[in-house]
């Protein structure tokens, strides 16, 4: 199978660098084809702006979504954006690897999503009607592909537990896993999160590699997170609120998972 | 009072550009001093990397937090980082203005947090003991200052409601408001969120300005979000889980607000 890694860490001699090399070699030894978008090494441009389109502006001034649409439709996107989209088309699975900085991904990876996720590619896809509100949240250009987060954090696991002060890790990652990955159609596998990285010694590193190897070996068998599909009947269209008879009276991120 | 706006939009002829100009002029007319960090206009560097420190590396290779600590302590940070920290020291209130892209801030603003929030400035501050786990979550370098988000989104309000498909807006913003603003000590005011921006006409724009003016006029009177302070007795130290007798059996972001 084809595996794409989107990887963001500024130093190759780091825990993340080592885990990235381990993952590539483990996947290749198992016969998979691997491409890595090493965003720091590529000097990836983070900021979405008018230079991302080679097409004439759709209006009088630059408009992020309208000009993304125009550039995508006309095949006039910046070459770095088009190349990443092509890698996504090629991939059967995508692993996003990053250190958790301020409870989200590093800016350079956010810039990958902001720019590669073009209008017509990752959003604004499919018909909008009274029964179908676009191909999103379970449908879309990336459906049939799997995605997984590989995340490191300096913080302690208990600080990210259900009652931990940082908030539960599942909730912290929801805007990424649901909002960025499930949205354009990925099946999202449970994340592999490595905590308290300042205390990594040889024994712990061996255990991380073992966990990662297991996750890579089961990329095609693991059960994805049970997010609810938007157009499968659970939501009222176009308000897109969860039907009143499902998890009645409850709110929050958790209701968007089938129980 | 001194108000700093951290502002990220690639086009000044936009709703965000207009609201930014409105806010500056409204605040100045009320007698306040205003500085704007217009991140796109400044060509702000988004990616945290080894060029952010002018100090010798703390170890054999670049280490994001250890080298941030060293550079901050020695006064050898990159000049753009030090300048933003100085603006923060000057400010009595900080307004972060951005369009919500993929359920978070644009990469260029994430890069502002990744880089300006140095070790020793925004984290790694204060003693760590059995009764006090660092000056964070309600204490820290930025305590006594107020912060507010001003956010626009193309999505509909119902999609961000308590049972809306995107997840509740309060939860989407929690990693920012609690994790990035309350963490180094800001008092965080409720956000001003403007929805469905593609449908903005003159009448709606006037209403947005009116709402924004009201929020600016009450910056020093509004009640901050009631996040729980880390070291005030609600959390078990060092696990930093909420005490068992508070909101017993409950989890999620909501338990970190006093009810």
Automatic annotation (TrEMBL), chains A, B:
Keyword field contains Oxidoreductase: yes
A cellular component annotation (GO) from this entry: cytosol
Domain Flavodoxin-like fold, residue spans: 1-213
InterPro entries per the UniProt record, alphabetical: Flavodoxin_fold, Flavoprotein-like_sf, NAD(P)H_dehydrogenase_qn
GO molecular function, one term: NAD(P)H dehydrogenase (quinone) activity
PANTHER family referenced in this protein's UniProt entry, alphabetically: NAD P H OXIDOREDUCTASE-RELATED, NAD(P)H DEHYDROGENASE [QUINONE] 1 ISOFORM 1
Designated name of the protein: NAD(P)H-dependent oxidoreductase
Organism: Phytobacter ursingii
């Amino acid at each position: 199978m084809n595996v794409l890694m989107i990887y963001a860490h500024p130093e190759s001699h780091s825990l993340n660098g080592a885990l990235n090399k381990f993952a590539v070699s483990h996947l290749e030894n198992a016969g998979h084809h691997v491409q890595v978008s090493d965003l720091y090494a590529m000097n990836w441009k983070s900021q979405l702006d008018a230079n991302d389109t080679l097409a004439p502006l759709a209006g009088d001034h630059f408009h992020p979504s309208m000009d993304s649409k125009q550039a995508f439709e006309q095949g006039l996107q910046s070459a770095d954006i088009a190349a990443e989209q092509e890698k996504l088309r090629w991939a059967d699975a995508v692993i996003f690897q990053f250190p958790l900085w301020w409870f989200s991904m590093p800016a350079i990876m956010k810039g990958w999503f902001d720019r590669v996720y073009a209008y017509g590619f990752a959003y604004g896809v499919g018909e909008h009607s009274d029964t179908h509100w676009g191909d999103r949240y379970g449908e879309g250009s990336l459906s049939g592909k799997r995605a997984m987060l590989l995340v490191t954090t300096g913080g302690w696991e208990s600080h990210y537990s259900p009652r931990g002060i940082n908030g539960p890790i599942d909730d912290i990652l929801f805007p990424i896993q649901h909002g960025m990955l499930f949205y354009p159609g990925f099946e999202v596998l449970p994340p592999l999160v490595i905590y308290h990285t300042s205390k990594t010694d040889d024994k712990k590193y061996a255990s991380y590699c073992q966990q990662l190897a297991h996750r890579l070996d089961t990329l095609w068998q693991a059960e994805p997170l049970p997010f609810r599909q938007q157009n499968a009947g659970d939501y009222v269209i176009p308000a897109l609120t969860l039907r009143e008879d499902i998890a009645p009276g409850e709110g929050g991120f958790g209701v968007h998972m089938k129980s």
